[in-house]
């Protein structure tokens, strides 16, 4: 797993695997989940982290995705 923050876009990116992203879905406001060809989660991106702080329960997002 790799976690990175992009200051320009004010986003946090959590990458779980190196699989190719086939589809993306906004599961909550400013929370995007990326999937591979087996419909498994590859990564999660959280936008507007500093400008619009929110509480995000990653385990819940992963279960609902």
Strand order of the largest sheet: 1-2-5-4-3
Largest sheet: 5 strands, antiparallel
Number of domains: 1
What percent of residues adopt helix (DSSP H or I)? 10-25%
Distance between the termini: 18 Å
Question: Count of helices?
Answer: 1
Computed structural class: mainly beta
* Contiguous uncertain segments of 5+ residues: none
Topology:
Elements: E1 2-6, E2 11-15, E3 23-28, E4 31-35, E5 41-46, H1 58-64
Describe it:
The structure is a single chain. The chain is mainly β. It has one domain. 11% of the residues lie in helices and 42% in strands. It is built from 1 helix and 5 strands. The chain has one helix spanning 58-64; strands spanning 2-6, 11-15, 23-28, 31-35, 41-46. The chain has a 5-stranded antiparallel beta sheet with strand order 1-2-5-4-3, covered by helices on one side. The protein is globular. The two termini are 18 Å apart. The mean pLDDT is 86.
Keywords:
single chain, mainly beta, globular
């Amino acid at each position: 797993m790799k976690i990175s923050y992009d200051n320009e876009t004010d986003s946090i990116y959590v990458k779980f695997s190196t699989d190719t992203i086939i589809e993306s879905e906004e599961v909550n406001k400013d929370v995007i989940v990326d999937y591979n060809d087996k419909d498994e989660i590859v990564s999660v991106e959280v936008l507007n982290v500093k400008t619009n702080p929110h509480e995000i329960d990653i385990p819940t997002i992963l279960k609902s995705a």
